[in-house]
């Protein structure tokens, strides 16, 4: 293609756009790798383990970007205590525990010893096992403990249930429950609420 007749400004603009796209691609690719490398070895190994698990429930694992974001929020507000309802194999529990101080405490609620046992070695390897208070019983029983009610800042993932909250099926009790919770939080004047489209949805609720 001949460049004859093309203005100098157009050529400069075209070259600049090409350079920016090249630099953007390189920086983006490098940044993704740097973010991945910034995870502890335990987080990387557990993440890979989760991705390769031959289990039909692996879809319930928290999105990596959600877990990283919640851990950074915990650092930002200098959280010392946290509650997780639904531990699965412990990826997010590890992420949050790493964000807490050495004397911090994560109350981890689940009912499956089989799945939570997968994460325990990784908690120990990362040096945070002493922070994780695993409660293998229904979460309602654990949350009935008065001291736990003082943990008022709430981060809830999966608020949009993969978009199903827009029109939940009649037999989809899980999505209906999420929809009801979203509506209840929206009407609660005692909290400051934000719903973010990170992963499959993330709700932030801060007590006023």
TrEMBL record:
GO terms for molecular function: O-methyltransferase activity; S-adenosylmethionine-dependent methyltransferase activity. Signal peptide: none annotated. Keywords: Membrane, Methyltransferase, S-adenosyl-L-methionine, Transferase, Transmembrane, Transmembrane helix. It holds the Pfam family Methyltransf_3. The chain crosses the membrane at residues 12-28. GO terms for biological process: methylation. It comes from the Eukaryota. InterPro entries: Cation-dep_OMT (IPR050362), SAM-dependent_MTases_sf (IPR029063), SAM_O-MeTrfase (IPR002935). Belongs to the class I-like SAM-binding methyltransferase superfamily. Cation-dependent O-methyltransferase family. This is Catechol-O-methyltransferase domain containing 1. It comes from Denticeps clupeoides (denticle herring).
């Amino acid at each position: 293609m001949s460049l004859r007749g093309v203005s100098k400004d157009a050529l400069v603009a075209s070259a600049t756009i090409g350079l920016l796209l090249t630099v953007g691609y390189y920086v983006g690719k490098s940044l993704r790798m740097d973010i991945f490398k910034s995870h502890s070895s335990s987080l990387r190994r557990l993440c890979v383990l989760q991705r390769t698990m031959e289990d039909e429930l692996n879809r319930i694992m928290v999105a990596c970007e959600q877990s990283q974001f919640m851990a950074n929020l915990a650092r930002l507000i200098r959280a010392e205590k946290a509650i997780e309802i639904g531990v699965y194999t412990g990826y997010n529990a590890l992420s949050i525990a790493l964000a807490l101080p050495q004397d911090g405490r994560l109350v981890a609620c689940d009912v499956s010893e089989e799945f939570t046992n997968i994460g325990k070695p990784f908690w120990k390897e990362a040096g945070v096992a002493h922070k994780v208070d695993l409660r293998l019983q229904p979460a309602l029983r654990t949350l009935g403990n008065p001291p736990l009610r003082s943990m008022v800042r709430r981060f809830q993932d999966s608020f949009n249930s993969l978009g199903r909250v827009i029109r939940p099926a009649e037999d989809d009790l899980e999505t209906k429950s999420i929809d009801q919770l979203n509506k209840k939080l929206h009407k609660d004047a005692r909290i400051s609420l934000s719903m973010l489209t990170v992963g499959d949805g993330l709700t932030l609720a801060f007590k006023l």
